[in-house]
Design brief:
19 helices, four-stranded parallel beta sheet, single chain, about 450 residues, six-stranded parallel beta sheet, about 40% helix, elongated, alpha/beta
């Protein structure tokens, strides 16, 4: 198979002092067997020199007209600076900027290898970022090349096919989440991350290197409830805590997937199946799946599940005092979606983690926790579907089996970091110090 031709888009300003050099460059590239798309308005293209037949296969002249304009805005047929009186050059620039939308569509359709813009087409920078920030799903299944140490932080194939267009593709607002983030990072003087060096120091250093900016860990910001609980300032009187009082220390699994994760009925059934197979005590904060047809428990849980597990498990619907539950002495581990806030809430008590990531960045959080020896991740089928057997296997590994002892030890050590409020306060102090010492003050000169 022959080598595919390079494709270059030319985007000159609408003045012949600009159009002609861009055209001459296009001719030179065509002679080198480079495919060129030369974009301008129809009348400007008509006034360009004829292209020799041998080069015509390599140069595509792309006429994009101005949208309808008020007759007084520009003289009739005016498409270049030569057609416009000097006092209306600004209007020509405004009309040129109105080409942005069709040019954006052309670039999205053609996906050229290079774009060569003139000074006027400043908006093509954002167009290029939107269209060329989209990585392939395959590229997301391994750590990027700028991670120079062994890393597990990457997506699985069944995750990447949704993440790639979901984060990097433009949404209903016309801009992608990746573009929003890139703009903020680009304009930022420094970056603050909810983490600490004891857990993610290696990745913090990578972030500093690739952004070229100060990266400041703020600490993990553990919830104040835990500090107050340790001092005996919070005492909850809810039935689920009374149930926990009757269980053995560190024997119960807390199960919760937050309010953002919309589990399907099939996923709920497999989680229930896994809990039942594990034969471990559990407390499950469950929200009704979107696919459930009614509020009847048997419509979204396996038939008879609540009755069969009533001696070992407690299923709770609606709001739960999650921090108080996690801080109860009978809780030993958690099966959850690996949202970063939930990781912090759980690890501050030194509980072992069984992670079942569902959406957005949760898979990356899960891989980081596995890499650091702090979690067991539930193995999924190739299509991403769940297996109750695998859920049970991961739960028993983390909670009771001898093979999981190192995991439990690591979690207790991490608890000493995440739950160390003095250490976390130190990070906040360093962050405040940076803010105080790095204020950008403009010097204003006033004439007397």
């Amino acid at each position: 198979m022959g080598k595919e031709l390079l494709h270059v888009v030319m985007l000159p300003w609408s003045a012949f002092g600009h159009l002609m050099p861009f055209f001459q460059l296009s001719i030179a590239l065509a002679k080198a067997k480079v495919h060129v798309s030369f974009i301008s308005t129809p009348r400007n293209i008509q006034r360009l020199p004829k292209i020799s037949p041998d080069l015509q296969p390599f140069i595509h002249l792309v006429p994009i007209p101005f949208p309808p304009l008020d007759p007084d805005f520009l003289p009739e047929g005016a498409e270049a600076s030569v057609d416009v009186p000097s006092e209306k050059i600004d209007n020509l620039m405004i009309a040129y900027d109105l080409l942005q939308t069709p040019i954006k569509q052309f670039i999205a359709n053609q996906m050229p290898d290079w774009i060569v813009p003139d000074f006027a087409a400043h908006w093509v920078v954002d167009i290029a970022k939107e269209n060329y920030a989209l990585p392939s799903p395959k590229s997301l299944t391994s750590p990027p090349e700028w991670i120079t140490f062994p890393s597990l932080v990457a997506f699985k194939e069944y995750e990447a096919i949704y993440v790639s267009p979901g984060f990097w593709g433009a949404d209903g607002t016309g801009i992608s989440g990746a573009s929003r983030l890139a703009k903020i990072i680009s304009a930022s003087q420094a970056l603050a991350l909810r983490t600490c060096n004891e857990i993610e120091g290696d990745y913090v250093e990578v972030y500093k290197k690739i952004t070229g900016k100060p990266v400041i860990p703020t600490g993990v910001l553990p919830p104040d409830q835990a500090r107050k609980m340790a001092k005996g300032e919070i005492k909850s009187d809810v039935p689920m805590l009374h149930w926990l009082d009757k269980q053995k220390p560190r024997s119960v699994v807390f199960v919760g997937f937050g309010s953002e994760c919309k589990l399907s009925k099939e996923q709920v059934h497999e989680i229930a199946h896994g809990l039942e197979l594990s034969d471990l005590p559990f407390i499950w904060g469950l929200r009704k799946p979107n696919s459930a047809n009614s509020d009847q428990v048997d419509d979204f849980l396996p038939l008879g599940f609540v009755d069969r597990t009533s001696e070992k498990g407690l299923v709770c619907f609606g709001w739960m005092p999650q921090i108080e539950i996690l801080g109860h002495p009978s809780i030993g581990g958690s099966l959850f979606h690996s949202r970063w806030g939930s990781v912090i809430e759980t690890l501050q008590f030194g509980h072992c983690l069984v992670v079942l990531p569902i959406i957005i960045d949760q898979p990356l959080n899960a891989r980081l926790l596995v890499e650091k020896g702090l979690a067991a991740e539930v193995k999924r089928n190739e299509d991403g579907s769940l297996s109750g057997e695998e859920i049970a296997k991961s739960l028993r590994l983390a909670m009771v089996e001898e093979e999981g002892e190192q995991l439990r030890t690591n979690a207790r050590k991490a608890g000493a970091v995440f739950g160390d409020h003095k250490l976390q306060d130190h990070y906040i102090g360093a962050f405040v110090e940076y803010l105080e010492n790095n204020i950008k003050k403009e010097v204003i000169n006033r004439s007397s």
